[in-house]
Design goal:
Layout (H helix, E strand, L loop, with lengths): L1 E2 L2 H12 L10 H4 L3 H17 L11 H14 L1 H8 L8 E3 L2 E3 L7 E3 L5 H21 L6 H19 L16 H12 L3 H5 L8 E6 L3 H6 L4 H26 L4 E3 L6 H11 L8 H9 L5 H17 L6 H8 L7 E6 L2 E2 L9 H28 L4 H12 L1 H4 L7 E6 H12 L4 H6 L7 H8 L6 H20 L6 E4 L7 E4 L2 E4 L24 E3 L1 E5 L2 E4 L1 H11 L7 H15 L4 E3 L1 H12 L9 H16 L17 H7 L3 H4 L10 H8 L3 H18 L4 H12 L10 H11 L5 H5 L7 E9 L2 H5 L7 H13 L2 E3 L4 H19 L8 H24 L3 E5 L4 E5 L4 H12 L4 E4 L2 E5 L5 E9 L4 H14 L5 E4 L9 E4 L2 E6 L5 E5 L5 H19 L5 H8 L9 H14 L10 H12 L5 E5 L2 E4 H12 L4
Parallel strand pairs: 1-8, 23-26
Antiparallel strand pairs: 2-18, 3-4, 5-7, 5-9, 6-7, 9-10, 11-12, 13-16, 14-15, 17-20, 17-23, 19-20, 21-22, 24-25, 24-28, 26-27, 28-29
Length: 1078
């Protein structure tokens, strides 16, 4: 194994990262035919400016290391080389072009704005200022030089976007990715070339590693509170990221292939943790960042500068340190990660010479990562003086010996890159058909390949290198099962029971404390319970805890033995109601999850299921200025104090400061007052509605605020038919305050939202999109909007290059472009940007993000905002072709659909069951839907498409309703607007009895009707169910507006295998669902 010191490693990677100038393609106009030589000089100037004054400033790169820069450049841009090297491209000839094309759909493009050269120089100076401080203030860090590189890696791209600078193209002849995609791809590729540069053996080497936490749904869904589910997801994200982090700090951030470290909030946390020398307790940044950097020394000032860059990047409301910290509380890291581990030994690092060494290190790191989280939770609870944290901390401490072992391990797939590379050569050079099959190249025409490339400038070994990344990313999980390439290490569940003498016994006597010996955890059903709180019914529909169970719990917490026991006993007993529910039995791991979110209670924006359910109503009261109704004298009729009513409708950030009521919890409040839960809900709802009716709020003002809450646009555009109609009615006494006030209630329902991008695996592997014919058509766009530099034959060579690439792909048996490192960077970045945007959208909707990886997303939302939030999540995934920051296009959006499931549930429902139900409807209904849309956009008439569907269900009915989500089709957008606005219609002009009326008159005849007949009958039912307008002279015109709103339901059919439905039928079902919750 090659030993390599951190100075050498850092200097190499910095040279790879900066081998091209950031404004590369923009230099074409200024440098002209001399671009080839002079642009590299520009890159050197930028590099020297950045490193000036640091310990790396005067250190040159060895000649052996210089070779790796060029090799990494070539392999990172594999497809570009196919296009450019097969045509004898004329010397000193270029194409000056300024548009970025979507890599999956090249016909879509966007113009890139050229930044002033002086602005690029300012970026270099700003980076230099930060790196100089880091260099001087981190002298005690063993990998100081690598930390310099990691700082540069983290800041290079975001600092440009924070200053409004547009990225350059990597190459104007293949304008599908930016220079940043190429540069970051080159650093990743460099990891498998280190062996070549440092030894006599020229082999590509290293390990491609896939780490996966299996059983994700079972682990995450095990919960009865929002906090349980969030904590499970956050645990997974941080366990996986901790594995990445270990290797990142040894080899450099670029070794993480997926999820991308670029523009990743977790990368920022990793960097700050290392700059502040926090060791394995980087989680403290989430809770104590301000305290850590309050002293204004140079390093803390540099950290402030770094934070300011990311504030500009993420644009979180408030733009303060807390905004950044909230991103570290979001589970944005998937349960699967991929690493490219170089075969070198940095100082003080363990040598990882075989896949067994790598797997053992990953297992050890996983156990350490788990312990670090447990340490953090325990220390965080112990650091607080209030009885809630102390009691829960003592519970965790009492089972710490069990919690030191994770509940399970991870699956690890490892392939030896050198062996995969040799196999590719065996396939295409030595014509080994059996090897080709193993690599997934089953359709390659080997004889034709040799003949075609015989006189080409692309030799077979270069072709092998260009295919290496594609095969590693798409085939490693399969190749790891074949001994000649690597090995697969399966995870192991920790044992909870032993079998002896014909009986199951728990692994620890503490778990056999019950009269029956042991009982299973009621949340996960996988581990034995440690505490059990059985139900005790005190009054009809009023359930509380059994006294002996409470006494046992108090004994575990250590309260029974304290001198001040009597003083705090009653307070703790009240608090228990907020932490546990009657009937729960929790094992050590599920207790840890609950303790985790309690430890973050002052940092989380949403704390409980009730928080989510009441979020929108609370916001409405605040926006209307109706919080004064919480002071009315009639409040006494509820049986609550003014403070407690305010508590229900106060933002959770303020609630968390009240240790008497640590979480918003309607059930706990009812228990505290001895009020039946249902009675309390009814009393508060009646009070809100009555108070609203007796207030002086005008109907148009109330309508405007309700519309704003549910997402209906209120800017007065003529396209917003629903709002314009209803506002006109409200202003003319057609709608009264009484009906609108019905919107207010003590909400006990919320929405579980689950979404997943359609066909994402096939897209990334190149099975969908990326067809070479689409790229060939892109040449016309380049020709029409560019300027030739040097030879006028460049366009002829470009066309020939794409034709040659097409021929090579056909010979290889590939239907689309193989995934290159640069393209993979662009796709991964797109997913990361989507994940951050998902959080912002869910937050705006008053919900809590459970997980987003950019493709799949899970969130809890108030019922009022769920539809609008899903529409926005779908739009964010793909709408205009590109992901943007500060209105700067930086990566291709992935042009596919994103299907969603919304499940409306009650806070008393079993959450784990409802999470599973939401997923089942997503997979078995939305993902299997096929739509036939007549009409739509002028370019997409009579379209048929699959998936990209929303399914809406409720736990209180067996009804489901499905709707298309193809937002680029006008009629679909109109339907989505209709279902979003339906709560307004039901509050005002639409009868809730319409579904029954429709079924009575139409349902038996639906299957015999064509679309026109069905629509006419639907219109007839609609007319019967429009409420009478008061004192409105323009009834006919208003009715025509109503019918216009529903017109988009016509000519739209749904198929799921042999089932057939229409948008009209689905809307009737939707009405049946939504009328029961609004």
């Amino acid at each position: 194994m090659i030993e390599m010191d951190y100075r050498e490693l850092a200097l190499l990677k910095i040279n790879v990262l900066l081998h091209d100038p950031l404004n590369k393609s923009f230099l074409l106009g200024r440098l002209g035919p001399e671009f080839g030589e002079k642009h590299r000089g520009e890159a050197k100037i930028f590099l020297h400016t950045i490193l000036n004054g640091t310990s790396l400033a005067s250190v040159g790169l060895k000649q052996t290391l210089e070779k790796i820069v060029g090799e990494a450049d070539r392999i990172a841009s594999a497809f570009d080389r196919w296009v450019l090297r097969t045509t004898g491209w004329p010397s000193k000839s270029y194409i000056n072009y300024g548009y970025l094309h979507n890599v999956f759909s090249p016909s879509i493009r966007v113009e890139l704005r050229e930044p002033p050269s002086n602005d690029v120089y300012k970026v270099a100076l700003e980076l230099n200022r930060i790196l100089t401080i880091v260099d001087k203030r981190t002298s005690d860090v063993p990998e100081k030089e690598l930390l310099l590189y990691n700082t540069l890696y983290t800041l290079l791209e975001p600092i440009c976007y924070s200053k409004g600078l547009s990225p350059s193209l990597a190459d104007t002849r293949t304008p599908t990715h930016t220079v940043f995609d190429h540069l970051y791809a080159s650093t990743a590729v460099a990891n498998m070339l280190l062996n070549k540069a440092l030894s006599e053996d020229p082999k590509i080497d290293g390990f491609y590693v896939i780490i996966d936490f299996p059983g994700i749904q079972k682990f995450v869904n095990a919960g009865r509170k929002v906090g349980d589910i969030w904590a499970s997801s956050w645990l997974l994200s941080n366990l996986i990221w901790s594995l990445d982090e270990y290797f990142m700090n040894i080899y450099g951030y670029d070794i993480v292939v997926s999820p991308t470290p670029r523009l990743n909030p977790y990368t920022l946390r990793t960097l700050l943790s290392r700059l502040l020398n926090l060791g394995n307790q980087g989680y403290k940044l989430i809770t104590d960042l301000e305290e850590m950097i309050k002293d204004k020394d140079p390093l803390n000032n540099a950290i402030e500068s770094i934070l300011n860059i990311y504030r500009e990047l993420y644009d979180i409301d408030g733009a303060d340190k807390r905004g950044i910290r909230t991103l570290w509380l979001q589970p944005l890291i998937p349960a699967t990660t991929s690493l490219l581990i170089p075969k070198i030994k940095p100082p003080e690092a363990e040598p990882l010479e075989t896949e067994h060494d790598v797997a053992k290190k990953i297992d050890d790191c996983f156990i350490d990562a788990w312990k670090n989280i447990v340490d953090f939770v325990e220390s965080k609870l112990a650091s607080r003086n209030d009885i809630l944290h102390q009691a829960l901390g003592n519970i965790i401490k009492s089972v710490r010996n069990m919690l030191d072992t994770p509940p399970q391990g991870v699956n690890i797939a490892i392939v030896r890159i050198a062996d995969v590379y040799e196999a590719i050569k065996e396939c295409i050079i030595n014509k080994r058909r059996d090897i080709c099959d193993e690599l997934g190249l089953k359709n390659v025409a080997l004889e034709t390949l040799h003949q075609k490339l015989q006189n080409s400038e692309i030799d077979l070994e270069s072709l092998a290198k260009s295919l290496l990344w594609y095969i590693l990313v798409t085939r490693s999980s399969i190749l790891a099962r074949i001994d000649r390439y690597g090995r697969l290490y399966n995870y192991i569940l920790r044992p909870f029971w032993t079998y002896s003498g014909g009986q199951l016994k728990s692994v620890d006597s503490k778990l056999e404390r019950f009269s029956v010996g042991w009982i299973p955890c009621s949340l996960c059903s996988q581990e034995p319970a440690y505490i059990a709180l059985r139900k005790d019914i005190k009054m009809p529909n009023q359930v509380t805890f059994r006294k002996d169970d409470i006494d046992e719990l108090l004994s575990i917490t250590g309260i029974q033995n304290r001198e001040d026991r009597e003083e705090i006993l009653q307070g703790l007993q009240n608090l228990i109601t907020y932490i546990f529910k009657p009937g729960e039995a929790l094992g050590p791991y599920c207790l840890l999850k609950r303790a985790l979110y309690v430890s973050f209670r002052d940092n989380l924006e949403m704390l409980s299921t009730d928080d989510v359910a009441l979020s929108a109503v609370s916001k409405l009261l605040k926006n209307l200025g109706l919080t004064k109704i919480l002071d009315r004298k009639e409040i006494e009729s509820i049986g609550l104090s003014k403070e407690d009513l305010e508590y229900l409708f106060t933002p959770s950030a303020d609630i968390s400061k009240d240790t008497r009521k640590p979480f918003k919890d309607i059930y706990a409040l009812a228990n505290a007052y001895g009020i039946n839960y249902e009675d309390l809900v009814n009393r508060v709802t009646k009070y809100l509605v009555d108070s609203c009716r007796e207030s002086e709020v005008k109907p148009e003002e109330l309508l405007k605020n309700i519309a704003h809450i549910i997402g209906t646009p209120i800017n007065g555009s003529s396209n917003h038919t629903t709002y314009n109609l209803l506002m006109n009615l409200a202003k003319n006494n057609g709608i009264d305050v009484d009906s609108l006030c019905q919107f207010l209630s003590l909400r006990t329902q919320y929405a579980i939202v689950r979404g997943d991008a359609d066909n994402i695996g096939k897209i990334i592997s190149g099975q969908i999109f990326g067809k070479i014919e689409e790229y060939k058509r892109m040449v016309e766009s380049i020709k029409n909007s560019s300027k030739a530099i040097g030879s006028e034959d460049v366009y002829k060579h470009l066309e020939q290059g794409y034709e040659n690439a097409k021929n090579v792909l056909e010979i290889l048996g590939l239907s689309s472009l193989p995934l290159s490192p640069a393209i993979h960077q662009a796709v991964s970045l797109s997913l990361m940007l989507t994940a951050v945007s998902d959080y912002k959208i869910v937050r705006e909707g008053g919900g809590i993000l459970i997980y987003s990886g950019g493709d799949d997303v899970t969130a809890f939302l108030p019922i009022e905002t769920a539809i609008d939030t899903v529409i926005k999540l779908r739009e964010e995934f793909y709408s205009n072709g590109f992901k943007k920051i500060n209105n700067i296009p930086i990566a291709s959006a992935i042009p596919t659909g994103r299907s969603f499931s919304i499940r409306f549930v009650n806070i008393m429902d079993v959450m784990s069951t409802e999470m599973s139900n939401a997923m089942e409807f997503l997979e078995n209904r939305a993902k299997r839907a096929e739509w036939n849309i007549a009409g739509g956009s002028p370019l997409d008439k009579n379209s048929i498409y699959k998936k990209d569907t929303l399914v809406v269900t409720s736990s209180r009915s067996g009804i489901e309703a499905l709707f298309p989500l193809r937002i680029d089709i006008d009629s679909v957008q109109n339907i989505l607007n209709l279902i979003r606005d339906t709560p307004l219609l039901l509050l005002t002009i639409l009868s809730k009895n319409m579904p029954e009326d429709y079924r009575r008159l139409v349902e038996e005849y639906e299957i015999y009707m064509d679309s026109n007949s069905l629509y006419n009958l639907f219109n007839y039912v609609l007319k019967r169910n429009i409420k009478s307008f008061k004192s409105v002279t323009s009834r006919n015109s208003d009715l025509e507006m109503v019918y216009k709103i529903f017109r988009s339901l016509k000519d739209l059919s749904l198929f799921i295998e042999n089932e057939k439905s229409t948008a009209i039928q689905e809307y009737i079902k939707f009405l049946s669902i939504v009328r029961g919750i609004i």
